[in-house]
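hiii so my PI (J.) wants the whole complex modelled not just the main chain, which honestly fair. so below is everything: two entries, each one labled with what it is. i double checked the lines twice but i was tired so who knows lol
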Amino acid sequence: MLKIENLHAEVERKAILKGLNLKVKPGEIHAIMGPNGAGKSTLASVIAGKEDYEVTQGIIELDGEDISELDPDERAHAGIFLSFQYPVEIPGVTVTNFIKTAINESRKAQGLDEMSAKDMLKKIRQKSSLLEIDRKFLSRSLNEGFSGGEKKRNEIFQMAMLEPKLAILDETDSGLDIDALRVVANGVNTLKSSNNAIIVITHYQRLLDHIIPDFVHVLHDGKIVKTGDASLAHELEAKGYDWIKEKIIS
Amino acid sequence: MKYTEDDLREELKTKEYEYGFYTDIESETFPKGLNEDIVRAISKKKNEPQWMTAWRLEAFNAWTKMIEPEWPNVQYTKPNFQDIAYYSAPKKKPKLNSLDEVDPELLATFEKLGISLEEQKRLANVAVDIVMDSVSVATTFKETLAEKGIIFMPMSEAIQKHPALVKKYIGSVVPPKDNFYAALNSAVFSDGSFCYIPKGVRCPMELSTYFRINEGGTGQFERTLVVADKGSYVSYLEGCTAPQRDENQLHAAVVELVALDDAEIKYSTVQNWFPGDQNGKGGVFNFVTKRGLCETNAKISWTQVETGSAITWKYPSCILKGNRSVGEFYSIAVTNNFQQADTGTKMIHLGKNTKSTIISKGISAGQSQNSYRGLVQINSRAENARNFSQCDSLLMGNECGAHTFPYIESKNKSAQIEHEATTSKIGEDQLFYCNQRGIDTEKAIALIVNGFSKEVLNKLPMEFAVEAQKLLEISLEGSVG
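here's the output for the full assembly
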């Protein structure tokens, strides 16, 4: 599904990703872990196509198509979803209005008619109950005055509504208490199917107790330096990132 | 693929004024220039009574001694008032009972504007009094209104048919000597609308006037007078578009509202005059005096969506004379390219327990300058007066400006005055967030701007709100910060 080869990327002329390789197949969950500044969030932004991030070398393919020249909205239409670490506020635009616009814009790009109000409502009802979201919440301005947990829950709600092929969860566990973490993880697990794939970016192992990854990758200095199964996350938790750094040096 | 400010600039340059077309209807135009003879000629042309002619002449004489105001935060070349023709009327002036009789070219113009009369008659239940180059050429729904005793007609006709009413109220809220442009308007106003709602009558439909400026080099001086008698209610809509012009077009309108005891007037404006091209050339100068007077327990609401004009100078105001009267001002002002707007309101609290609300949303893009200027004045006898003001500015790009000039004068200690202000910028993070959800940049801006303006858009009558939303999108196409 996703193929990244020898990816180099820089922000403001500073190299962040330095030859990263990653292959993700449908039905898989990949976790990307690593110390602060390793390039985890940069990887997420580069896949989503944020314009400040310049790809200097390498390829990014989705289903065999090179997406590196596509605009962020076109990548979204192709099925890429990014759950933001810091979701932005849009005052005066309700959660419902926002998600309705997002769905219909994607449908338009695929040559489909707008979703009927009836279907939209049905879908909203279904997905909001999955994430234990109070319906009143949906009439509030997007992310305005939301708590950290509400913001993340709202991100996963949008993911549920948009049904992406590839979802990247960037530090979704940060700012979540244990109950919210459980709800969000349950949501993600329910949305998971054999047709889609998920990349979980996280600093800590605790989210991975709830969303069990098929692969764990350790990112260090812009490269994936170690890949393993779910047990690698536990090992990292126990030994810390210094253990990886030491191993690389030796 | 990277969308930079340079791309934006290119895009804005190529964006032409959507409604920039010109209707070729024969016009009869006075020679350029202004003097007593021209004022008399205008009055004579309209077959006005002697008192009206005298009123105009007095205003003219006052005007000659006045100085054009320079305090607004706008810069422009002052119009040469001797280089303007002060009267222009379509030559064909048929009496019209149905749309079939309307000049097909005029109908085509309205089609282009998306305000086809057929649509309006059928769907919107709106009576339309069209002002085209100063003289009204069509009036509909008159009979329905007449049944309720509502008078809604061109000002020139009202002067003939209801002289006592006009004489009593014209200039009662905006005196002829009020300011430079009001004096000019009083001397040379060509036409406009007059509306009277009798005691206790609730006007069953939104009254609507579409103004157009058409003849090149013709200044337009509209005069609107709305009188709501005791306990009555009316909602009045005013919408404007103008064809593209190279030379500046001066517009100095006067709008007077009178809300007698327990009456309510809602006055809504969507304004989309030619704002000038990407170099700041051309565009309408909009110097308007709008003011309403509230008697006891009366209420006046001004709602405006301003997207057009090269220069805007406009402060729809309320004089809260009666006890317990209420004044409201809801405004969205958009400036793009080289547009300059100095707009806001005045709330003059004279009566006891008077209340006013000001919600102003300014959106600046391109190299435009957008200023809010507002006065809240509490007089010494206005016990327990209350005001709430909120002024929000939204910026796009790095070359535009937003300014706020709030003036508060309170002479009564019991007054409660609140003022809130915010300034924000459409950020790249917001745009990226929307993009990531599959919403392209144009649509994202429309979404963000609509969210920002929502509190004001919600105050507009339904059919007008849709039009206003469309206008906001058109005005800001490609404006990425």
